[in-house]
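Any chance you'd type out a single protein's sequence alongside its tokenized fold?
>
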Amino acid sequence: MLDDNRNILSDRFCDMVSINPAMHQAFSLACSVASTDMTVLIIGEVGTGKKMLAKAIHTNSKRKSGRLVIVDCKGIQDVFVDIELFGQEHDAFAGVGVRRIGKFEQASGGTIVLDGIDQMGRLTQARLLCALQDREVQCVDGSMLVPIEARIIVLSSKDLWFSVKSGKFREDLFYRIAEFPILLPPLRERREDIPLLAKHFLESATKAADKPITGISTKALKLLTSFDWPGNVQELKSVIEHAVLLEASSTLQADSLSPMIHPIRKRHKNLSMVGILSLEEIERQAIINALRLTNNNIRQTAKALGISRETVYRKLKQM
């Protein structure tokens, strides 16, 4: 049983929980830079908590009363990134003479977070560099200059220096945004955090599901701590939330954990090696995998599988 009664508030920075020295160093750096207007570069794999740390920096800054604007650079087509960031003097969709306000202007007085900057195209990189150097942005299709009055935090899931060396990222822009770098280690490099995080996520998941689950079995905890977590903290959170939905006892058992984290995943590369699976098992794995990929969203899971939400709930109860 997981019976660590540690007060997680002593190991918490805003909503981030850790007892790992490298994470504590990241927390300390974030606290130190929060009160300044320095540009911060947060580097870490997907799911390590880059957005959470950016929000924590904003919350602890003198700009906390201003807006926190997060721009997903990797989720916007290159042709629209400039418009999203810098605005458009004449928005053809909204009507002639209507100006589209860019994210930099929207974040005036607050903080703008550029997530996935490693996916940004070279032309946008050039415009961003000019904007950061001059502390002003020029609207697309116009001559209007808008001063930058926002604090800038940049997130990257890749080591940008390698992108610089490969010619995919501008070196001059790298030095401009890497004014204050913070590195977040992957979960596999801080396994001592897994029991603490598992308990933290268990408490919130049981409350949301209204289930009386008070602990994690030794076998389940062993599975959790031995897995490499390619999706890092976010994947652990999803696995715990999924397991809570399936668990029928007062202790989270290993059988309720997603089969994706069981050792069999490493031994069997494909179905031909596993052997013949029953239709029931295939169906079970399909539902579990869909829940994992949708972060336990029942509506999205049902839609993806082509079944009703009621069927998903019924199947979960039968597992």
